Amino acid sequence: NAIDSGKVKWSSPSNIALVKYWGKREHQIPENPSISFTLSNCKTVTEVTFTKKESDSYSFEVYFEGEKNEAFKPKIQTFFERIEVYVPFIKDYHFKIETSNTFPHSSGIASSASGMSAIALCLMSVEEKLTEIMMSKDYFNKKASFLARLGSGSACRSIEGELVVWGQNKSTESSDLYGIKFDGEVHPNFKNYQDTILLVDKGEKQVSSTVGHQLMYGHPFAHQRFEQAHENLANLKAILASGDQKAFINIIESEALTLHAMMMTSMPYFILMKPNTLQIINKIWNYRNENDSNICFTLDAGANVHVLYPEIEKESVLEFIKNDLAAYCQNGHFITDHAGNGAELI
Ligand code: PMV
C-alpha cells in the first residue's frame, strides 16, 4: 500500500428491532431473520486515523469521548481477529480510533450496534483510500454491514434505513451475512415512525446479549421461536404495505414480550425487565385504549422501553410521556428519536 496515513470519519445510528434476533450460530449467523427501524438521533461518531507500520500484529488505541479508553479494547481486538481475512490491511497500519455517542453513556442504550457499524464503515473507507478504487455504494454498504455483523450481530442493520432486514427468509430479499434495506412497500402510516426511549435503568445489564444468544442452544422453545420469527416477518411485510396499525402493534408487542419470555424460560433463567418496565407497559395499554391511539412498545435486551408511534401522534404522545411516563424513568430521562436513513460519511 502506497499510502502512509490518512483519516476517515463516519456517524452511524443505533437501530430498534421489530422482529427480534435472539439466537445465533458460529460466525454470527442468526438463527432467525430480523427487521429493524434504523434510528436517527442515537448514534456513534467515529474517526479513524491510520498510520503505516510494520506488518506483524494489530495496533490500535481507543479514545472514548475524548479520553483514552482501555475497556473497549478487548471487543475491538476480537473484532479485528474476526475480520482480518476480509480486510488484510489492518495489520499494516496503526489505528487511532476516536469515538463518541450522541446519547449519554451508561444509559442502558446498546451502543454496540452504532459503535461497531461506525468502525466497520471507517475501515471500508480506509480500504477505499488504500486501493484507490471507488466501490459501488451497494458493495460498500454490503461489506460494511458484513463486517459490522462480525462485531455485533445487530450492528449489521445500522448501515441503511429506514427499515433493514437481516437473515435469510422466504418473504424478503435478505442474507444471513449482512443487512439489506427492506425491499417491500411501506404505507405512509409507517414512514418516519417515532421512537421515544424511556431510560428505566441506566445500569449495566446483569446478562449480556452474548450469553442470552448462547442460552438459545438447547432452549425448550427455540425451534418454535425461530419459526415464529419467520411468520412474523412475513406477516409484517404485508402489514407494512397495507398500513394496518392494529396488526402492526400486535406483532411488535408480541415480539418484545416473546424476546423476554425466551430469557425467562432459558436455563439459567433471567429477567431483564424492571418493575417500572411493567408499569410503563400498562400505562401504554391504558393510553391506547382511552385515546384510540396507535402507540405501542418494544424492548431490547434490557429494562428500557422503546415507545413507538406514528408521526401524526407526536405532539399528544410526547405530552403523555412527559406527564405520565417520565416518572418511571431514571432521573425522568428519555430520548426522542425517529426512523432514519442510516450512516453518514463526515
Ligand atoms: O447484536 P447483539 O448480539 O447485541 O444482539 C441484540 C439482540 C436484540 O437487541 C435483543 C434484538 C435485536 O434484534 O436487535
Automatic annotation (TrEMBL):
Keywords: ATP-binding, Lipid biosynthesis, Lipid metabolism, Lyase, Nucleotide-binding. InterPro entries: GHMP_kinase_C_sf, Mev_decarb, MVD-like_N, Mvd1_C, Ribosomal_Su5_D2-typ_SF, Ribsml_uS5_D2-typ_fold_subgr. Residues 13-175 form the Diphosphomevalonate decarboxylase-like N-terminal domain. Residues 197-329 form the Mvd1 C-terminal domain. Pfam families: MDD_C, MVD-like_N. It comes from the Bacteria. This is Diphosphomevalonate decarboxylase. It comes from Winogradskyella aquimaris. The lineage of its organism: Bacteria, Pseudomonadati, Bacteroidota, Flavobacteriia, Flavobacteriales.
